[in-house]
């Protein structure tokens, strides 16, 4: 009786976990897409394209979880030993992949600061103030979104070719605080400008984005471990316990 109860409970939890896998697949794909979209806004501040590898992998894992959930549900309800074995093997492979994502996430998260420090001066030097210029759009976007100005502060603009060529002692309007009327970006009115530089805030933002990937991978890796455990319980007990029964029929062993 205890064996039957244990198997039925494991199967019930397993079916429920497969439903969670479908939800997890959508969440992981969303997280990966969010990282891609957000990094696209900051791609001028880092040169290492491999930084996006964790996001690519986690989107692939999300797509695979849809298939895993289908296999798991069908194998559990039909009590297919082959299906459950396949389910466990795929889960193990995905679990290992998510561990790799976590490791890569931490590695690239540590490299973000060096990447930004290496490239941010070049991006500011390429600024020309036009919307058709990609570096200019990137800087204006970052300064408005992060409420910052310059690299360490607004005075950094004095060293840029754009500032020297314009000769009006002003910084871009994207440095202006939104609650200030008639802001011209003039350095003679520093209170109208964002006081904080963008370098530290860009680094912080990119590290936060990478943490989303890391936490998503860790969370669903833990759920997958529970799924593997339940599947193994059903497989092991079902192979030697005559109480092994169909979950959907509610049949009893006579």
TrEMBL record:
One Pfam short name: Tetraspanin
Chief location: membrane
Entry annotated with the keyword Iron: no
Matches recorded under InterPro entries: Tetraspanin/Peripherin, Tetraspanin_animals, Tetraspanin_CS, Tetraspanin_EC2_sf
Protein name: Tetraspanin
Keywords recorded for this protein, A-Z: Glycoprotein, Membrane, Transmembrane, Transmembrane helix
Transmembrane residue ranges: 12-37, 49-72, 84-108, 209-236
Subunit details: Interacts with claudin-11/CLDN11 and integrins.
SUPFAM superfamilies the record matches: Tetraspanin (SSF48652)
Protein's cellular compartments: Membrane
Family to which this protein belongs: Belongs to the tetraspanin (TM4SF) family.
PROSITE patterns: TM4_1 (PS00421)
């Amino acid at each position: 009786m205890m064996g039957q109860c244990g198997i039925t409970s494991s199967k019930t939890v397993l079916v429920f976990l497969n439903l969670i896998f479908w939800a997890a697949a959508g969440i992981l794909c969303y997280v990966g897409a969010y990282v891609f979209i957000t990094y696209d806004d900051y791609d001028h501040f880092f040169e290492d394209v491999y930084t996006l590898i964790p996001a690519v992998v986690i989107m692939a894992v999300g797509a695979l979880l849809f298939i895993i959930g289908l296999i798991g549900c069908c194998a559990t309800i039909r009590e297919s030993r082959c299906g459950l074995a396949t389910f466990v093997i795929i889960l193990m492979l995905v679990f290992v992949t998510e561990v790799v994502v976590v490791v890569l996430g931490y590695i690239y998260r540590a490299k973000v600061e060096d990447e930004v420090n290496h490239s941010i001066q070049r991006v500011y030097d390429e600024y020309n103030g036009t919307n058709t210029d990609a570096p200019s759009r990137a800087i204006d976007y970052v300064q408005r979104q992060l409420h910052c100005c310059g690299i360490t502060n607004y005075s950094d603009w004095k060293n840029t070719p754009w500032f020297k060529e314009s000769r009006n002692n002003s910084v871009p309007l994207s440095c202006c605080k939104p609650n200030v009327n008639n802001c011209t970006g003039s350095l003679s009115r520093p209170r109208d400008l964002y006081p904080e530089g963008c370098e530290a805030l860009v680094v912080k933002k990119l590290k936060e984005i990478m943490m989303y990937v890391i936490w998503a991978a860790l969370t669903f890796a833990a759920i997958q471990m529970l799924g593997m455990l339940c599947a193994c319980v059903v497989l092991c007990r079902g192979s030697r316990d005559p109480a092994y029964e169909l979950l959907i029929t509610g049949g009893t062993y006579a």
